[in-house]
Amino acid sequence: MDSSVIDLAAPTVNFIIFSSILYWALKGPVKNHFASYEDHISRTYKKAQDKKKEAHERWVEYEEKIKNLPEEVSEILAQTEKNVAQIESQHQRETQKKVAKFQEDSKMRLKAHEASLVEELNRQLLESVVQKTKSSLHKDSSLRSKARQKLVKETLA
């Protein structure tokens, strides 16, 4: 054999022994590292797939909403117009009720005022009659005596 090959035999054997020991010592940790890395990548991929599916579902949902948007706007406008009409109608009814109540209250006040005026006129008329009667009684003595006799009769009766 050639001396150059023999000179390489010892380092080759040392390399093989060192590589074997290194392989045997690092085989478990490297295998565990790659297994955990593979698991991490699988979970990340699964999350990415879930997010993609969720995003696609949202996208489809929004596409459907956008597609139906004109119809929804029309429905909302129609409902709004209906609500406005109901509110106007209700407001009109309430206003009519208030006007009727105000009219009734005004009539009651007018009747009360009329009654107080009639009462005041009756009181003034009565005072006037009493004054004229007193005046007549003071002027005419025969009327005065007749009035006394009548009062005495009514008091005794």
Please give a structural write-up:
The protein has 157 residues and is mainly α. The chain has a domain at 1-67. Helices cover 97% and strands 0% of the residues. It has three helices and no strands. It has helices at residues 3-67, 69-139, 141-156. It starts with a helix and ends with a helix.
Average pLDDT, to the nearest integer? 89
Radius of gyration: 60 Å
The helix-and-strand class reads: mainly alpha
Please provide the ordered H/E string of secondary-structure elements.
HHH
Give the topology.
Blueprint: H1 3-67, H2 69-139, H3 141-156
Helix pairs in contact: 2-3
Summary of the model, kept short:
With 157 residues, this protein is mainly alpha-helical.
